[in-house]
Amino acid sequence: MKPAVFSQRMPSFGRVNQVPRTAETHPLTWRLRDDGQTVWLDEYRQKGGYRVAETQLAHKTPEDICRCVKEAGLKGRGGAGFLAGIKWSLTARGEGIPAAYLVCNADEMEPNTFKDRMLLEQLPHLLIEGMILAGYANQAVRGFIFLRGEYVHAARVVERAIGEAREAGLLGAHIAGTDYSFDLQLHVGAGRYICGEETALLNALEGRRANPRAKPPFPGQAGAWGRPTVVNNVETLCNVPVVLEHGPEWYQALARPESGESGTKLMGFAGAVRRPGIWEVPFGISARELFEDYAGGMRPGYRLKAWQPGGASTGFLLPEDLDLPMSSAGMARKGLRLGTALALAVDDRVSMVALLHNIESFFSRESCGWCTPCREGLAWAVKLLSALKDGRGRAEDIQQLEKLVGHLQPGMSFCGLAPGASEPLRSALALFRDEFEATLARSPPLPA
Amino acid sequence: MAIAFLSEAEQQAIRAEIAHYDSPRAASIDALKIVQSHRGWVPDEAIPAIAALLEISSVDVEGVATFYSQIFRQQVGRHVIRLCDSMSCFINGHETLLAQLQEILGIDAGQTTPDGRFTLLPVCCLGHCDKGPAFMIDDDIHGVSSLFPEGDGGGPLRDGDGGAEHGVRDVKVALMRLLEEYV
Ligand SMILES: Cc1cc2nc3c(=O)[nH]c(=O)nc-3n(C[C@H](O)[C@H](O)[C@H](O)COP(=O)(O)O)c2cc1C
Ligand code: SF4
Ligand code: FES
User: Fold this and answer.
1) What is the per-residue pLDDT across B23-66, written as a single tens digit (0 to 9) for each?
2) pTM of the complete model
3) How far is CA B122 from CA A292, B80, B81, B108, B179, in A?
4) Which of A375-384, B20-29, B162-171 reaches the highest mean pLDDT?
5) Which of A363, A403, B144, B180 has the smallest CB count inside 10 Å?
């Protein structure tokens, strides 16, 4: 199969293609081309690709692989940070249990997240190799890549790469001459953020409305079409060949010592920074390094007012918090989650009230409508924020917003969307209450 | 027969999708997209036809068709413009872009131009937050770097905060130039 060139008006190329990269320091991205074009099969193999899958399938048992991934401490990169090795070891298997399915979560719709797209467009074979290994570790008979519908270019690339791999005997019956058979299918979605939630994703995959499912049973027990199903994020799966090639100790040592993390992470900064983009960096570097050394600080004329560490569903931090490490433990010090680790800089010219109105409008529109706190609560929050933003708000509105934050906490709703929506609102109300209150001065007095 | 509403080509493509899955229902989203790719949208009569092919009820198909944002249950223009309105693009000046597009096209978000050429839709984050405000015209992704290829590809397009790198007029000219390519 000849490599295809797909033209794009706005190419995949980005900052990640411009930094020096080595296999030792950038195990995920060293194979990227400097021009941002896709690394197709021949080039991927020239750069050592698929060697790990071939050796592991020939010489290791599925249990060996699970153990290695567990020891390496590979955490899920989809936002929740669950240990991949633990998830895999909990996948149901045995007599009378149908063989598992593996699902790659490529729904990437969290605002300010643009890392999985880069991997899909530029390194599709790294993902396929990761899926072969994860599939083998879970003894999965089939894998699905659930890709969001707007990633048109990624869909073409992945489809083509799957074809290349199949033709080379790397997918299908008896992969690379071993006993293991596994094939991949690309499933392209049709919109809606909620499809990224893993149980909603399973409903979408089965051709149903993407409402989340009740847990338990967890997908690892009964997922797609009732089979045990492993759901992992694109970046998580792309880390699997790296872990298995170099082993747990090597992988752990990639992260900053005492960060409580393993490996490298795709991190980024967007907003009015000098060089917005993503980079592969050691897990646990300080946010300041990311902000200043990589993103170049703010553009002239803009001052950093607040930042979010990893997507719309993470809370806000202040400029003085930039010294925190980009790790789960680092963010936990402020009571926050790291999320996807693609940070957003909010500058001094952006109104926090207007920004929160934008963020909560997103969550409200994307609510699947299944449970009341989320469906009604978010719509109410948007109404209140809209009034405050336009100078029609009242003091009680701010108190009401605080109450709503309480109703959207984990445990009060059916899935993680509502708690995610409450996070930025809670922290903005705490850190920037003056901005919310200042809008009241513009409001007309109540009629007597 | 309900199925007859669909052309041979549509039926064949849907049957091919069904073959990929454990159960025919799984092809519901693909089936709706196939009809949409042939007709630009999914007319009412297509719903029972798809339901018959998938051996599920029309209500189920309609439930799926109305859930997903990329399935159009109303006629859209020849070209669909999807404009990201999520937070990073908001910071990067999505509102300027929206206002410009509305002015050029003479329509609001969610509407279609009277000549049936463009439909303007707000959508969630398009995964190009470093190059935003991002938007798609049909299958093409665009952003500041495709509007201003000669520039440094960055800087908020926000209007009225004194910091906009590119004047509002520049944005309008660049947008009009780009839209000309979509006839
Ligand atoms: C509302 C919502 C949206 C989500 N969207 C995504 C997504 O787009 N991509 C993703 O990988 N995980 C997403 N997740 C997390 C998934 O539910 C799941 O935890 C993840 O895919 C597991 O993979 P990992 O362990 O490899 O991270 C979302 C979760 C919630 C609650
Ligand atoms: S929290 Fe929101 S998105 Fe999740 S199930 Fe409830 S309504 Fe749906
Ligand atoms: S927020 Fe607009 S592309 Fe991500």
Assistant:
1) 999 999 999 999 999 999 999 999 999 999 999 999 999 999 99
2) 0.96
3) 33, 10, 8, 10, 17
4) A375-384
5) B180
User: Rounded to an integer, what distance in angstroms lies between the CA atom of residue A43 and that of residue A237?
Assistant: 20
At B170 the pLDDT is 82
Residue nearest to atom 28 of ligand 1 (CA): A197
Instruction: Specify the DSSP class assigned to residue A213.
Output: P
Candidates A378, A387, A385, A430; CA nearest to A193 is A378
Q: Using CB atoms within 10 A of its CB, is residue A336 exposed (0-12), middle (13-18) or buried (19+)?
A: buried
Q: What is the pLDDT of residue A281?
A: 98
Q: Does domain A260-347 have CATH number 3.40.50.10540?
A: no
SS3 A55: helix
How many angstroms does the Cα of residue A109 sit away from the middle of ligand 2? 16
* Ligand 3 closest atom vs CA B84: 2
Residue A181 pLDDT > 60: yes
Look at residue A389 in the predicted model and tell me its pLDDT: 96
**Sequence ranges of the domains in chain A:** 24-252, 260-347, 352-442
Distance, CA B131 to ligand 3 centroid (Å)?
8
Q: What is the DSSP string of A71-97?
A: HHTPBPSSSS--BHHHHHHTS--STTS
Asked if the Cβ–Cβ distance from A302 to B68 is below 8 Å, we say: no
Strand partners, A145: A104, A186
Going by the DSSP 8-state scheme, the letter that residue A174 receives in this structure is S
Q: Which residue has the tokens 């009378």?
A: A96
Strands A229-233 and A304-308: unpaired
Q: How far is CA A308 from the centre of its chain?
A: 15
Question: Which residues in chain B are closer than 8 Å to A366, comparing Cβ atoms?
Answer: 124
Assigned CATH topology for domain A24-252: Rossmann fold (3.40.50)
Which CATH number is A352-442 given? 1.20.1440.230
List the single range of A2-6, A132-136, A192-196, B124-128 with lowest mean pLDDT.
A2-6
Give, in order, the Cα–Cα distances in Å from A93 to each of A97, A227, A303.
Answer: 6, 10, 54
* Cα end-to-end distance, chain A, whole Å: 78
Q: Which strands make up the sheet holding B140-142, listed edge to edge? A: B118-123, B79-84, B135-137, B140-142
Pocket of ligand 1 (CB under 6 A): A 76-80, 82, 105, 107-110, 194, 196-198, 231-233, 236, 415-417, 420
Least Cα distance to B94 among B124, B119, B117, B137 occurs for B124
Indicate if ligand 2 lies below 6 Å from the C-beta of A288: no
Distance CA A233, CA A28 (A): 14
Burial A363-389 (b: 16+ CB within 10 A, else e): bbbbbbebbebbbebbebbbebbbbbb
Instruction: Decide which of B165 and A159 is more confident.
Output: A159
Nearest CA in chain A to B178: A9
- Residue B159 vs residue B175, higher pLDDT: B175
Q: Is the confidence at residue A8, as pLDDT, over 80?
A: no
Q: Left if phi > 0, otherwise alpha if psi is -120 to 50, otherwise beta: which for A176?
A: left
In short, whether A39's Cβ falls inside 6 Å of ligand 2 is: no
A447: exposed, middle or buried (Cβ count in 10 Å: 0-12, 13-18, 19+) = exposed
At B110-157, the pLDDT tens digits run: 999 999 999 999 999 999 999 889 999 999 999 877 788 766 555 788
Which amino acid would we find at residue A257?
P
CB B62 within 8 A of CB B47: yes
| Per-residue confidence (pLDDT) for residue A56, from 0 to 100 | 98
